Amino acid sequence: MLSELIQIKFHKIMQTRAYTIIILGTDEKKFAIYTEPTIGRILQLHLTSTDKPRPLTHDLLTMVLQGLKVSVKQVVINDIQDTTYFARLFVEQEINGMTHIVEIDARPSDCIAMALINNAPVYCTSAVLENSLQATEN
Question: Are strands 122-125 and 70-81 parallel, antiparallel or unpaired?
């Protein structure tokens, strides 16, 4: 069964020493993805345009993709099982006049970081939005 894609946006990132909470969603419904604190720091560095003394892992991956003339097109959070979210990173490369799109399974937190770094849109399926728990922003 196909599910409609809904564009979502970042609403808030909250960080503790133990984990990061990324609040995403639409204006009507927001949901939380919990991840390790390292991802939260990476997202905060990019959101605040803070200079980094050395490239971080997501920066390295972005530079490798750019070197191969591959662009990040979009991220889709495509499934939720219990409280675990699943995502796909879509990248595009043109070879000999033909456009190739590759869909890569990855953690939502890594996909979100790549989307943020590359100014790519983030979507979720209508089923994910419907089945996610409403996040409270305190």
Answer: parallel
Q: pTM of the entire structure?
A: 0.88
For 2, the token pair is 């196909």
Rounded to whole angstroms, the Cα distance separating 136 from 49 reads 27
Picking from 100, 132, 138, the residue whose alpha carbon sits closest to that of residue 31 is 132
Instruction: Write out pLDDT tens, residues 3-30.
Output: 799 999 988 999 988 999 999 999 999 9
Q: Which of these CATH numbers, 3.10.690.10, 1.20.120.450, 2.60.40.1120, 3.30.420.10, describes 5-131?
A: 3.10.690.10
**What 3-state DSSP class applies to 82?**
coil
What is residue 133's predicted lDDT score, i.e. its pLDDT? 80
Domain ranges (residues) in the chain = 5-131
3-state helix, strand, coil in the chain (%, to 5): 30, 45, 30
Token representation of residue 3: 């599910």
Yes or no: say if 131 and 83 are a contact pair by the CB < 8 Å rule. no
**pLDDT per residue over 85-128, tens digit each?**
999 999 999 999 999 999 999 999 999 999 999 999 999 999 99
